[in-house]
Amino acid sequence: MLGKLKRVLGIEGVKVEMYIKLPIDKEEKVITGNLKFTTKRESVVKGITVKIIEKYSRGRGKDRLVDEYTIAQLELSDSFVISPEEIVEVPFSIMYEIAQSEMDKMASGSILKRPFVSFAKFMRKVKSEFTLIAEADEDGAKLNPFAEQEVEL
Prior knowledge:
18% of the residues lie in helices and 47% in strands. It is α+β, with helices and mostly antiparallel strands.
C-alpha cells in the first residue's frame, strides 16, 4: 500500500538533473545539453518533454502584467527502463526563435532609435526571463519528475 502511494506521488522515483552546454550560442539559436536520470527503484520513463518558457513582464505596481509563452518544445519519445543506482544520460538539442516586439524591431532597424527604445522599456519596466524545463513521463506516477533552469537568451 505504502509502496503504491510512493509510486503515484513519485517519491523514490525517477530524479532528473539538467546540464546545459554553456555558453549558449545565440547566433545558432539552439540549446544543447544532457539530462541525467537516477532512481531508487526500477522505473519506466515513457517519454521526455523539453521546453523553453518566456516570462514576459511589464508595468509597475498594481498595473504590472505578466504573460508566459512557450517559445520552443521538443518531444523525445524514447522509452527506457532505469534500474536502482543506474545513471541514464539523454542528450538533447532544442532550437528556439524569440519573437520581437514592435519596439525591438524599431530598435534593430535604426541605431538612432536604440537609446529611446531602451529608455522606454526601462520606464515601462519591460523584462523577459527564459526558463528551460525538462519533464519525464514516468509510468505510474501522477506527479512527473522535472528539472528547470533559467537561461540567458
